[in-house]
TrEMBL record:
Chief location category: membrane
Similarity section: Belongs to the 4-toluene sulfonate uptake permease (TSUP) (TC 2.A.102) family.
Bilayer disposition of the protein: Multi-pass membrane protein
Organism from which the protein derives: Neisseria weaveri
Transmembrane segments: 101-118, 138-167, 203-225, 232-250
Cellular component GO terms, alphabetical: plasma membrane
Underlying gene: yfcA_2
Identification of the protein by name: Probable membrane transporter protein
Compartments it resides in: Cell membrane
Keywords: Cell membrane, Membrane, Transmembrane, Transmembrane helix, Transport
Length: 253
């Protein structure tokens, strides 16, 4: 048990740090849980443990970001409400749908994202001052629903998808985009938990230390992101996408 606790804490800390700084913490945490936790634990329960820890870490990171970064609440609040509903629906289906089918589609999406971000040198480097248009507000509702469902049923790469949407379709800088993504991500994590917890898909002796470590990692990760600024986040974003692409490709071969 002591060895298991050590690996849980280490995994949670590194995942929280990574997720708060650039996103993608689930890429580390989910495989870690499937490898370290006893094989008798159901996949839905492992996802519930993961979501509880992710929620605690994202809550910490979101608080740090919104205290220092101005985010578009007018669009985020309704988008978060729809994302909550969609994420809850996704969590209900997690035990019934073959989530492996999501990986080929995600691989294509990530390839497009990394090529586009690499080619557009000024993407996410300028601070937007213009008000959101009606079309952009509606677009936020659409993406909130779509990505919220994906996060509820699968998860890895959600933060990267959200950040890319805010940079590409709203012309936000990477710092504002990352902060905005955290708000939606926090909501989708809460939605998934509202299904997992009442249905007993949490084992608290595992979930609590993992969550504490995730929260500590997120405190450091958020500070790295804020101090590094948009230029740091652009390079970190590209690096993260390359890691995700490599991981998904390896699993599909």
């Amino acid at each position: 048990m002591d060895e298991l606790l050590f690996f849980l804490v280490l995994t949670g800390f590194l995942a929280g740090l990574m997720d708060a700084a650039v996103g993608g913490g689930g890429l580390l945490q989910i495989p870690g849980l499937f490898n370290f936790l006893p094989s008798r634990i159901a996949p839905a329960t492992i996802m519930g443990i993961n979501k509880f820890a992710s929620f605690c870490g994202t809550f910490s990171a979101t608080g740090q970001f919104i205290r220092k970064i101005s985010v578009p609440w007018k669009m985020l609040i309704p988008a978060a409400i729809l994302a909550f509903t969609a994420s809850y629906s996704g969590a209900k289906l997690v035990a019934h749908l073959p989530v492996a089918y999501f990986k080929p589609a995600m691989l294509v999406i990530m390839l497009i994202m990394v090529v586009y971000t690499f080619r557009k040198k000024d993407l996410g480097q300028t601070v937007r001052t213009a008000e959101l248009t009606r079309k952009e507000l509606l677009l936020g509702l659409f993406f909130g629903t779509l990505i919220g469902f994906y996060d509820g049923i699968f998860g890895p790469g959600t933060g990267s998808l959200l950040a890319f949407v805010f940079v590409r379709f709203y012309a936000y800088d990477f710092l504002t985009a990352t902060a905005s993504a955290k708000v939606i991500n926090l909501t989708t994590n809460l939605a998934a938990l509202s299904f997992f917890v009442p249905h007993g898909h949490i084992i608290w002796p595992y979930a609590l230390p993992l969550a504490a470590a995730n929260l500590c990692g997120s405190l450091i990760g958020a500070q790295l992101a804020i101090r590094g600024g948009s230029r740091f986040l652009r390079y970190a974003f590209i690096a993260l996408l390359c890691i995700i692409i490599g991981k998904f490709t390896w699993e599909l071969i």
